[in-house]
Amino acid sequence: MIGNASYSSAPLRNPINDVRAIASALKKVGFQVTKVENASLQSMDDAVRRFGKKARKSDVALVYYSGHGLQLKGSNFLQPIGADIRREQDIRFKAYNSDQILAELEDGSQRVNIVILDACRNNPLSRSFRSASKGLAQPNFQPVGTIIAFSTAPGSVAYDGKGENSPYTSELYNAILEPGLKIEDVFKKVRVGVMAMTQSNASLQIPWENSSLVGDFYFSGGPLITSNQNAAPTLTKPSEGNFSLADLQKQAETEKAWQDYFNKMESAYNEVVVYEGQNIGPKLKAGAWKLFSEAFKQDVPGTKDDDLMLQTASTKQLKWTNSKQSLEAEEKKVAEAIRREKADKKKQEKLAAANKIQESESSEVTYKGYFTIGSNKDEVLAIQGQPDDFDGRVWWFGLSRVFFKQNRVEKWNNTDKNLKAKIIPSRKYNNKGGFTIGSTKDEVLAVQGQPDDFDGRMWWFGLSRVFFKQNRVEKWNNTDKNLKAKIK
Questions:
Q1: Among 19-33, 379-393, 451-465, which is the least confidently predicted range?
Q2: CA angle, corner 53, sides to 50 and 56, nearest 5?
Q3: Which end of the chain has fewer CB atoms surrounding its CB within 10 Å, N or C?
Q4: What are the angstrom distances between the C-alpha of 101 and each of 69, 258, 389?
């Protein structure tokens, strides 16, 4: 059990609590547990090597990690405490590659291997380097008999949680202790619980698994271990009574019934595949796979083809459910954009009328709470609202982009027609490329440079912060003495 929380940048609240909670659950069901908290790179490497040696004598080996992680060019890296990562190249040498865990478990034994990575929390490093991405990637390889569980889907971000544990850990703790669940059902139960807990958040968190298990495993209340090898069919003990073909006849009838069931299942599967290929919405496609999964829940003896069909159905249902949610989110986003555009137009008209009156009364103009990111030639780009994302060189407003050069506005495009530009003669205003994020009262806050991070409610410039309310500057502090205010 490895939990890293005390990062110098972007510390986390819950990983230590998460490790202790899952350790407690595992001890209750018979595991021997070793915990490593706030580990350096060397400590993580030493702990995994020691664990690998112990695991060779065990029936089940489980590795759980909670903390920051990121993917770089298809590989997953777990972030140690104290790692001085300043360049993209540093990640390979100063972060822990999760493939080393899988390599340590690959020893050719019949052991069940379980790897759980709650390591997809929002990591600032993934925004700092071009090739680094949010969330984790699917593994490049995994030993036979291994299941790898991620707290969220590949490329997505998990939530740290507002309580003592992350949403993923809270659900996993309860599922481990529930008797009679196969390990696949444990993670299905976790997935349903986490999706329910995060449905009101900005994006839905959907846990994910990759499995190469070929046997059954129960944490609690089932057979302790089932070998990963494909076992021969269990033979019933022969009766000691008189000779009779009745039992064989019953067995033949049973085999025929299972064969008929499998044929129906295969026919239904092919029917859903054809249905899925039609020009219909994702909601209907997800519904078709759900009906298939509910109709054929029984495990057909003597074949794994039914398991493969059910696994594919589950994956397809999840895919189209996500697609449907994305579609609905996009429709809401478009509707909100239209509403905001109308509101902005109304505000702009009021502002233009007010500016006209003000310019006639005074040569000075005050933009209280207004938001101007710079100018290009004689056009001042004024935006009521904050960017969807930025990387220091480009700011995105939907598909519209604003390009910076040395922290000054160089140019912009208006693909989504959501940027507003106003002609102001340069002889009156000498702020070409300047960067003003708003004002409170009569102080205009002018910043030469872009924020380190923002979340829609707050912008960070080191330890200094600017607070927004309804996309207008409300107030600011100047802890790092790096913000400049001017009386206007």
A1: 379-393
A2: 145
A3: C
A4: 14, 41, 34
